[in-house]
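User: Sulfonate ABC transporter ATP-binding protein. Structure?
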Amino acid sequence: MSGKTLRIAGITRSFPGRGRTPPTLALQPTDIAVPPGEFVAILGPSGCGKSTLLRIVAGLDQPTAGQVLLGGQAVTGPGPDRGMVFQSYTLFPWLTVERNIRYGLVERGLPEAEQRAIAARLIARTGLTGFENHWPRQLSGGMQQRCALARALANDPEILLLDEPFGALDHQTRELMQELLLEIWEDMSGPGAAGRRKTVLFVTHDIDEAVFLANRVLVMSARPGRIKADVPVPLPHPRDWTVKTTPGFAALKARLMAEIREEVRRAAAAAP
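Assistant: Predicted structure:
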């Protein structure tokens, strides 16, 4: 499969202290290689450095040591080769759905006809047809995140970075969004697909979500974070909600739950 390999090489992150407060080590030396088209979930307890690691890959934060390489080129800041979706609703409130999705295309100077064609395709794919001219305040949380996903995909990034994007949604909407994301990712290299599967890094603290979505789950330790387990998810594609009822899913969930419980207890014991 064509595309660029992501390499996280010796990344550490320490935040300076204030006054008498000592520096906080958020990430221990971290090494990860993600081949093109892989869907990787990063799972860990709260405060373990998952989001910090994702922000460094996005170029929104700088590591204390180490580097991120995409296709052999060092990542030094944000770029169109990486699209990010946050947990909070980050649509521009002064732009309609269609204009939000086109925002990056406008910045890149694409012809308007091409912008509109790309936006129309993604609006249809994310189930937003009929809401093109709505403002973000007129949308439900799930619809806002569908729009944010479409905006991230519009620039055709090499890597899609998702930081607990469904964490603020109710349970039913969250499951529907998981299925939508997985369908879009699976369809990218399916029959008649125009492109290729995106490389995905998906931060979550939800074990079911990680197993359902990912090909591989990286488990992080309690702070200071490190990769303590690299667990493949050999469940077949395409997947739908019924995979959650299978023995294979239950076995993976049990293994990851044991890993996470240990780290949650460590984090609780270290809390002041």
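Residues 247-270 form the longest helix (24 residues). The chain has two domains: 30-81+157-272, 91-156.
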